[in-house]
Amino acid sequence: MKEKTEKIKYALVTGGSRGIGSAICLQLAKDSNYKLLINYRGNKEAAEATLENVKALGGQGELLQFDVANAEQVATVLDNWQDNNKDAIIEVIVNNAGITKDNLFMWMKREDWTNVIDTSLHGFFNVTNHLIQKLLVNRYGRIINMVSVSGLKGTAGQTNYSAAKGAVIAATKALAQEVAKRKITVNAVAPGFIVSDMTSDLDEKELKKMIPVNRFGKAEEVAHLVSFLASDKSSYITGEVININGGIYS
Amino acid sequence: MSNLATMTKEDIIIKTNAFLIDEFEVDEDDISSDADLKETLELDSLDYVDLVVSVESNFNVKLNADDFTGIVTLQNFYDLLEKKLK
């Protein structure tokens, strides 16, 4: 092969403005040399705050606004960015953007079913599929899919979310086998109850009784795991789902 | 760069062979029009990604997965490029 010119390396975190996504951005800023692409959909203020915090840690980054569920928008924004950053390669993809629309299945509206699947499952496809060719040519990469304990054991009231996350877990295993030869690893991280906006309505006092560690997890604890998976230290781990849930059997 | 639109079949073959040897480390002796891309040239499915990229940089032509349907030999591949460059 021809000598490759040294590229500027980026890590893209979808849904990076808040919660676990924001914690991942900060941890990558601390642990790696990657420049960060912080994706957000609507909350620009939170995304800017995350970017400020990244910079305060000595990291570099920029914001990318798009809705992962919108394939056309994903393609346009990523292509525009790449056109303006010809020497850049997105080497780490953290598919973190996700939404919940919980309801008992008997009351679940089709819209709530499809919206959750559009973001969590199709969002994974839209972003990863668009970037995979460049990763294959790069012959190195890290894809980390944020899933959930719900995608493994199922959670009542979350048939939509459980279905989406379960599907991403299966896709993780399949894609891992496809691209392993090119030193690209694909793993899933399955958090249990983590303190974030997504769990703010939950009754921690009641729920922690079923968690052996006896508390909700912190976003930073998840971010450490993601940061490890994003590093070259994790090179022999691929196609795995790693639970981080305080000991809930899953 | 020579004008791509007016390239003769011969030009296409020379240029293609050159990047196969240069970028894909294909042995010059293995190159013949009936050589099987997968077998003789030892291209695995992921190598096609590099092939697409090389074709784009050498010929300014974008190939997609459908273009490779029925492409078995090097001759098929030259023919595909000729068709695309028209």
Describe this entry's structure for a reader:
The complex is a heterodimer of chains A (250) and B (86). Chain A contains 8 helices and 7 strands; from the N terminus they run βαβαβαβαβααβααβ. Chain A is α/β, with parallel strands linked by helices. Chain A has one domain: Rossmann fold (3-Layer(aba) Sandwich), CATH 3.40.50.720. Chain A is globular. Chain B has one domain: Non-ribosomal Peptide Synthetase Peptidyl Carrier Protein, Chain A (Orthogonal Bundle). Chain B is globular. The chains are: A alpha/beta (250), B mainly alpha (86). Chains A and B meet through helix 4 of A and helix 2 of B.
Task: Please specify the SSE layout and strand pairing.
The complex is a heterodimer of chains A (250) and B (86).
Chain A: E1 8-13, H1 19-31, E2 35-40, H2 44-56, E3 61-65, H3 71-84, E4 88-95, H4 110-138, E5 141-146, H5 149-153, H6 159-179, E6 184-191, H7 204-207, H8 219-230, E7 241-244
Parallel strand pairs in A: 1-2, 1-4, 2-3, 4-5, 5-6, 6-7
Helix pairs in contact in A: 1-2, 1-8, 3-4, 4-6
Chain B: H1 9-23, H2 47-59, H3 74-85
Helix pairs in contact in B: 1-3
Q: What is the residue-mean pLDDT of chain A, rounded to a whole number?
A: 95
CATH architecture of chain A: 3-Layer(aba) Sandwich
- The helical percent of chain A reads 40-55%
Mean pLDDT of chain B: 86
Count every beta strand of chain A, where a strand is a DSSP E run of 2 or more residues: 7
Secondary-structure element series of chain A: EHEHEHEHEHHEHHE
- Do you know the CATH topology of chain A? Rossmann fold
> How many helix segments of chain A?
8
In the CATH hierarchy, the architecture of chain B is Orthogonal Bundle
> Please, how many domains of chain A?
1
What structural category do the secondary elements of chain A indicate? alpha/beta
CATH superfamily of chain A: NAD(P)-binding Rossmann-like Domain
Q: Supply the number of structural domains of chain B.
A: 1
- CATH topology label of chain B: Non-ribosomal Peptide Synthetase Peptidyl Carrier Protein, Chain A
